Amino acid sequence: MEDFLYFFTFQDPSITWVVMGITLLGIGSAYVGTFSFLDKKALLGDAISHAVLPGICLGFVLAGEKDPRYIVTGAFLSGALATFLSSWLKQNTKLSEDSIIASILSIFFGIGIVALTALQKSGNPEIAGLNSFIFGNAIGIAEADLFLYGGLSLAILLVLSLFLKEFRLMVFDPGFGKAIGFPMKGIRFIFNVLLILAVVIGIQAIGVVLMAALLITPGAAARFWTDRLQPLLLLAAFFSILSGILGTYVSFVVPQMPTGPWVVVFLSLIALISFIFSPKSGIIKRFIARRSYLNKTHRDHLMKALFKAREVNQGSMTLEEIYALYPFHKKEIAHSLQLLTRQGLVIQDSQGVQLSSLGTSDAMRIVRLHRLWEVYLNEFMNIAPDHVHESAEQMEHLLTPELEALLEQRLNYPALDPHQETIPRESHDL
Amino acid sequence: MITQVPHPVLEVHDLTVSYDQHPVLWNVDLSLPAGQLIGILGPNGAGKSTLIKSIMGLIQPTSGYIKIFDKPLPDVRSRISYVPQRESVDWNFPASVLDVVVMGTYGKLGLFRRPGKKEVQIAQDALDQVGMMAYSKRQISELSGGQQQRVFIARALAQQADLYLMDEPFAGVDMATETAIFQLLQDMARAGKTVLVVHHDIHSAMNFFEWCIMLNLHLVASGPKDQVMTEELLRKTYGGKLNLLTQVTDLIRKQDFNPLKR
Question: ipTM, 2 decimals?
Answer without folding.
Answer: 0.88
